[in-house]
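Hey,

Quick one before I head out. I ran the complex with threonylcarbamoyladenylate overnight. Inputs first:
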Amino acid sequence: MTAQLATRVAKPDAAAIAAAVRTLAAGGVVAFPTETVYGLGADATNGAAVARLYEAKGRPSFNPLIAHVADLAAARALARFDADAMRLAEAFWPGPLTLVVPKAAGCPVSELATAGLETIAVRVPNHAVAQRILAGLRRPMAAPSANRSGHVSPTTAAHVLADLGGRIDLIIDGGATSVGVESTIVACLGAPMLLRPGGVAREAIEYALGRQLVDAPAGVAAGAEAPLAPGMLASHYAPRTPLRLNAERVERGEALLAFGPKLAAGAGDAARVQNLSERGDLIEAAANLFSHLRALDAAGAKTIAVMPVPQQNLGEAINDRLMRAASPR
Ligand code: TXA
Ligand code: MG
């Protein structure tokens, strides 16, 4: 289990901001205010830090996270902006709008933060505390709302403490958030599509675009803890090679996704082996999950045999993703 931590709540003075930046740079998680709701931040480029974040939230599955950056220039280092995305970024950033856009080649955000997708959600928060942390960190910050999985989003430091006290090191208390609802999410992957209503009104977005937003098909909309998102907006990375779960032995022609120090029988004949964590550490395993699946998918094997992963802590989310990846499409 997550060790019980002495959660510190600090006013956003220079020392507290410096402590937040230090904690984040060292792979820790910190709750901080934005103009919409409080976020739970981690260095988006550090897969183990992102795994700790999911663990603190108690998320039973890996939802893709929003990468928070200081400005449009920093966002363009992560993702490709078409004309519509540029127009929306220029009209509403910094502010409560998140854009889902194609990941740029060489995007440094960890595969776990984007849940293995080819797209990434990016936002520039309009809040002095969030901006000061980003300026100190100089890296994108992955940040879901700072609530326990299944609870409502927090708009005060007290809400965060009630949900995550004992599970995180530090909460920066910037007072009540001004917008109070999450950011509006728009996908710019073709005709702009509204994935989640939020802090920027649809009308304002349509005015800036000069055209109407497409509505997300039922089941695609973001905001749910586990949005089903088929097709273009697939929110689940799916390898092309079929998966065989809970494999005790490797069959000829298979690749192996291993876990732990002892490999499955027949591993020596596997087309390729990737170990999620040789020492059996679930945080390390989560951080490696999507990149290892991708590597095995590229091996051209007939099947990917997957060793059992314990169903505890982050193992629940890892198994959730493996089960989705294994289900027929
Ligand atoms: O206002 C906000 O957006 C707050 C503050 C902290 O910035 N953050 C927030 O994050 O609400 P979260 O994780 O609670 O919600 C983000 C939503 C999730 O529903 C997720 O599925 C969706 O964004 N999302 C993230 N990346 C996506 C992607 N590549 N494609 C589709 N949906 C995505
Ligand atoms: Mg949330």
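The pocket of magnesium ion (ligand 2) is lined by residues 144-145, 153 (CB under 6 Å).

Talk tomorrow,
K.
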